[in-house]
Amino acid sequence: MRRIILLIGILFLFSCQKKKSASFDKEGTWQAIGYGRILHIDKDSFSFYDTSSISCLPLQKGNMDSFGNNLTLRNDTLVQRKGTGIYEYTRLDKMPNICTDLLSDSKRNDPVYNFEVYAEAIKNNYAYFEDNQINWDSLYTANQKKISASTRDLDLYLVMEEIMSVLKDNHGYIEPTNEVYEQASALDKDAASQTEEDTLPEYGDFQMAKLVSDTFLDEDLTVDSPIVTWGKLKGNIGYIHVKSMWLFADLNLPDSLVQKNGYISTYVDAFAQMNEAEYIEKERIGASNTIDRVMQDLQSTDSLIIDVRFNGGGQDVVSLEILKRFNDQRKKVASKKTKTHDGFTPEISIYMEATENAYLKPVFLLTSQQSASATDFFVMASKVLPHITRIGSRSQGALSDALEKPLPNGWSFAISNEVYYDIDGICYESIGIPPHYELNYPEDRQPFFRRVAQNLEQDKEMILSAMKDFKR
Question: What InterPro entries does the record point to (predicted)?
Fold first, then answer.
């Protein structure tokens, strides 16, 4: 018996040692394939760095527990799952010297160095040089000549903005300091003379959503959701208005902070402290809970309208979580590849899961040029569902994720580094997904908003008329 107990004890200790060793297999330094990222893992903690051949800037630190089950080893590759994305890393022998060398304050604030870091990131990661017929070498050379050690922050920002405008990147942006942004805004105001357009009313996304929902709904069934409005029209037609593809997560926001800083600012501050994969999963869960309630209320309708005309996007997982309520079998909805410094990664497929008792009666999806980003993805993914008909105008065509990057001086920017394709291999970046029934909405934001806001009943009748045409 003593021998048996001793043997069990040895096996137990050996098992624990194996488990402990396995848990440390991920330790070390890993370089992302594409994206310009390095992940360093030291026992229970991690650090992310944004890197190029001339820079290494810290991004985020945290505890390994925040990855949950989203970080796994596959042979010699580290695989991170985040939303609909799969990110692969290869092991480095050690941290690059550029990541361990101290960056001096003078270099950190050097306009030439900041411009070069910006340019290097675009060269290595921007995915649409060929599609948008951009000669990067010429664009870089022309703008590099404008930068010197004495260049003011405002002028550096304006040069960077000029490059971004040439790239025609729907997800591209630059965030300087508030002071620089205000200086640039003042220049725009000085350069522009007031026109009749400046005196016309302006509308926001959520404001438009309320105006339209109030007009459409004969029976409002909305409960406890600031993001989704739902109910019924006459003729047993259901109506779902989705205002955004984010803001669904339950982040336990303190009322005092919401009152002080506003809901969205407080929400952004809260999720900025979280691991991104954890935050995205919370968005999916929140969307799932909301859309379950919506579909329960509208399951008995004869047809449905889903309105995303004023939805600027959010998270792709939210889009799929909503859309799968209309899908009865697992389907591939898209594929994507990522820009690397010398080409592209292999394409990966994106799938939509099925829902039991899916809604398979006629669905009419309302779109516009303001249906962007994750809403673009929602519209594109809906193409695999034959009972969904698109009415309105093309979506915006901002499908790529925004690759966010820091600059040494503390500014940040983003560029599109991924190419999405629908199931037929078509890329809709910049051109948007077309509707089945065109309503010729204005492309520009405020003219479109004003046209709808000032003709609410007419807009509703146009849509109902289009629906009748497709039901025949």
Answer: ClpP/crotonase-like_dom_sf (IPR029045), Tail-specific_protease (IPR005151)
